[in-house]
Amino acid sequence: xxxxxxxxxxxxxxxxxxxxxxxxALARPERYRALTSATVAGPRISxxxxxxxxxxSFGAGVLSLDHRRFNRVLEYDAATALVxxxxxxxxxxxxxxxxxxGFLLRTQPGHPSITVGGCIAADAHGKNQYRDGNFSSQVxxxxxxxxxxxxxxxxxxxxxxxxxxxxxxxxxxxxxxxxTLRLVPVPGHSMRLEMIPVTDLPGLCRxxxxxxxxxxxxxxxxxxxxxxxxxxxxxxxQGVFIPEKTDVDRAGPAAQDSKHARLRAERRGxxxxxxxxxxxxxxxxxxxxxxxxxxxxxxxxxxxALFPASGMATRYFDFFGRAGFHEYxxxxxxxxxxxxxxxLERHVRRLSIPVCLASAKLFRGQQHRLRFDGNxxxxxxxxxxxxxxxxxxxxxxxxxxEHRGIPNIIKDSRLPxxxxxxxxxxxxRFRDELRSFDPERLYRSELSERLGL
Amino acid sequence: xxxxxxxxxAGLGRCLAEELARRGYDLLLIAGDxxxxxxxxxxxxxxxxxxxxxxxxxxxxxxxxxxxxRPELEAFGAPEVLMFPIGAASEDDRGLLDLEQAxxxxxxxxxxxxxxxxxxxxxxxxxxxxxIVGFGSIASARGRSRNVVYAAAKRGLQSFFESLRHLTAAxxxxxxFFQVGYLRTQQNLGRRFLLPAADPQPLAxxxxxxxxxxxxxxxxxxxxxxxxxVLQLLPWFVFRRLSF
Lengths: 453, 244
Fold this sequence. Notes:
The complex is a heterodimer.
Chain A: E1 8-14, E2 21-27, H1 32-35, E3 44-47, E4 63-66, E5 73-77, E6 82-86, H2 91-98, E7 103-105, H3 116-122, H4 129-132, E8 139-146, E9 150-155, H5 160-166, E10 175-185, E11 190-198, H6 204-212, E12 217-222, E13 234-242, H7 280-293, E14 298-301, H8 302-306, H9 315-318, E15 325-332, H10 334-351, E16 357-363, E17 376-384, H11 387-402, E18 406-407, H12 417-423, H13 427-437, H14 446-450
Parallel strand pairs in A: 2-4, 3-4
Antiparallel strand pairs in A: 1-2, 5-6, 6-10, 7-10, 8-9, 8-10, 11-13, 11-14, 12-13, 12-16, 15-17, 15-18, 16-17
Chain B: E1 2-6, H1 11-22, E2 26-31, H2 34-48, E3 52-56, H3 65-76, E4 81-84, H4 99-127, E5 130-137, H5 148-167, E6 173-180, H6 200-209, E7 216-220, H7 224-233, H8 236-239
């Protein structure tokens, strides 16, 4: 009943960091036959929440297929701790289903609107990658549609090569229809957050390593303002689930209807000039330290602990205005971090770069293809998008390569192909496997074209 | 409590099914595509713990779809709520549809509802309780050169619901008929409308929340009542010049 043709709207797409704006077509299928329809012609790419910092879900001349109406729970088995959901389900919706049943995903990024399919495509990481691994480590199986191959079941035993290519494949192998995810029992009703002072950047690795195995959440925050003395002072935020009930609620709904929860790349910062500059950033960092990080141990509700990038916190991204920001996230071998941090300080000072946010996490794993994974320390800096910042991130490209690191492709809308090729030792393998799977390259995005995939 | 929802796998129908499940209704979901239908039913069973049965059938003039639906209705038992958020329009519907196309259009937009209600009405009247919810379209406010058969079928449906209301007036059976404006659905994406399209989710929430309290004809969004009234009052010499 009703037509099966897929209507599309022309619109301007924007990467979440504001760095890439492109006109393209958007379709919002609600039925499987529309999503997998032969009437869709030409290049296409799946789209979840559209919150990637880079243009992973759109491209020039590409039809973006919005999956958000494919957000249903298909199977759930408490005995085996497995849930199968459609790929357009958001992490918040999944949390709202799982938490009352006593389960959680072990690994999930911090914003509730991000979809399961997006997390698989970017192989996102969570609160303690060192202990828990990346998102795909909890994916048991998935179904993938590609016009050339039809609907395929993928897992570590069924089509394992395509499974590996799809996890961290940036949506370029096809449309992920559903995923079976392994769950963990809810370890506590709330989370106790403690702040461990960090006096400078070089000493950070040692402190993170010491805290890693005993933490359910672990990241650091640093003040890289030029006025901060010493440069890079900050705190390690260590979170541990509390099994017994505390005076905070067990869990609130994470899917949230509030307008703050509905982050949209196209609306982020619209109508604002950038409020982040050399004059305001030191004040911003000072206030952040005093109000958020210089506090005694505190208990956070489960949803607040798992999704810190929600509610009013999302206003942070608006402060960058329409121009947006660069987030440069990279993974370095442990031994390279100290010399890297000295160079970082030198360049921040030389270019007078206002660093709004600097944060580190500990990583452990095997780096394959173009996944953001491996052993070392993951560090991220946010800077407002200015001419000086453009020079700064190019310097960062060179520094990361020189120190044997990798940049996070999904966090950077301008990352040049040459940098990705040099940083990722399996770059050619990924491209060759992709072309073997999809010789016509039906699934494309600005990201894939920019990187020459 | 039991409810039957036609067109339950997408758009307003899916939103209504979800709202009914949230309120604890066991459901019989009817739609054309079994994979969409089963996905929706699984989701509602797992999230809300309700019984959600499915019946995949394509409502078409050439197919004896009632033969498929009737045993499912019998197995499910008489529902307290019957919802018919179904319909199909066509860009070609400009007064030149052939008999087969016109029959198809009438079947989906009018006869499917008539046949299903007729099958269920004796039981509803016997019990003296239940709510039948139909969905019209603002396209039927006044006949024009587009949606010719569609508008006629929807106006026929409105008349059917008016009669139904009269027929059930002495019983506890309630009828509701919603004249719905543009909806933000897959089919309408990218189309330019004179007035903003409504989100089906809050609309479904409103309809289900007031199942027990309303009876009669309603416009959603509400401002369509005024728009429709103005359209109906426009003198012919003005209306004939309008193109929309």
